[in-house]
Amino acid sequence: MTKVDRSGERKTRPLNLKESNLPFQVEEPKRSLENLIVSNDVLNQIKSLISKIDNYDLLYNKFGLREIDSSGGRTVINLYGLPGTGKSFAAEAIAKEMGKKIIKVNYAEIESKYVGETPKNIKLLFKEAKKEDAILIFDEADSILGRRLDSVTKSTDHAVNLTKSVMLLELDNFSGITIFTTNFGKNYDPAFLRRIIGNIKFSLPSLSSRRAILEKLIYK
To answer: What is the mean pLDDT of residues 150-156?
Structure first.
């Protein structure tokens, strides 16, 4: 695995604002796995995922894992758990470990009150992530991963389902890595679950972990 030196200040570049008013940046990740304080089980799951992505061609095309893995080798990751458990930190650390830039968005900020605008925002983000070879991180993404509505009676219901369908299509057409962070870890639409290659639960830190976090903050 090739690591990229990310020392120094975070470098950012604004997205193409001619297409959208989205104020998001293409960034160099600064968080690292070395500074991520989680349980050994969570850390091992993260490292296993990184190894799986790194060895995608070998595993899926040469060793035939594509034939038995229902995910189809999609590089979609979901990190879930209560707020403050390190999900966003971990998402950025994964990107740094893989030597990738990031586009990090809070999902609520791309939702629009205007019908049809949210799917456009999603398409733009994937377009930019593809162009920049960046990992796309959707924070607080519970609403987009939730089940599609069975009974569509209003235009807003149709818009919700359309947005989810667009997200699914973009995930299928995106050759890069997408990471969702969510709080609840349940009630996901089965179509999203089928595309997720790693669903990792983050728990509140133990007493020793809290002490380690405080020490890092004090002595950094």
So the answer is: 71
